[in-house]
Amino acid sequence: MTLTIVPARGELLDQWREVHNRCVAPTQLTADDVAERAFRHSLTVGYVDGVLVANATVRAPEDGGVVTVIVRVLPEHRRRGLASEYLGALLRQTRASRFEQIKTVILADNVGGLNFAVHHGFVETSRHEVDGVAFVDLTLRDATV
Predict the structure, then answer these.
(1) Treating both helix axes as pointing N-terminal to C-terminal, what angle do 31-40 and 12-23 enclose, rounded to 10 degrees?
(2) pLDDT digits (tens, 9 = 90+) for 133-144
(3) Is the pLDDT confidence value at 100 over 80?
(4) What pLDDT is stored for residue 69 in this prediction?
(5) 49-57: long-range contacts (C-beta < 8 A, 24 or more apart)?
(6) What residue ranges define each of the domains in the chain, with the CATH number in brackets?
(7) What are the pLDDT digits (tens) for 54-69?
């Protein structure tokens, strides 16, 4: 089972949105929302044997060289190592770009996602709400290169 990651452009933005809206149900995005995000961030989709299984966002660096990496795997494809493989590919890419810090953000009620992030070296740094939806911000330990 090999994960293939491709940039989400054109028609693939609809697939990116499908994964986002299934995985982050409280924050549904429209096609216009996704088009705006695609302008500011790097959006990718992941496939196994041609089947859509995941997406990711790499948010443009903030002040100070902080980049945010978010991986989402559809529920029926979880617990197969795909999120680890996807995250690993994104971390290699962001580390090669020499960002000062790598962060992620996860729904506060996504216990599996939070455990995954901690398992991969992220530590909670803060919590915040957007439109009444609670999120946890985490920073990768030892991300400085």
Answers:
(1) 100
(2) 999 999 998 754
(3) no
(4) 95
(5) 49/1, 52/15, 52/18, 52/19, 53/3, 53/77, 53/82, 54/3, 54/19, 54/82, 54/83, 54/86, 55/8, 55/15, 55/16, 55/19, 55/20, 55/23, 56/5, 56/86, 56/90
(6) 3-101 (3.40.630.30)
(7) 999 999 776 668 889 9
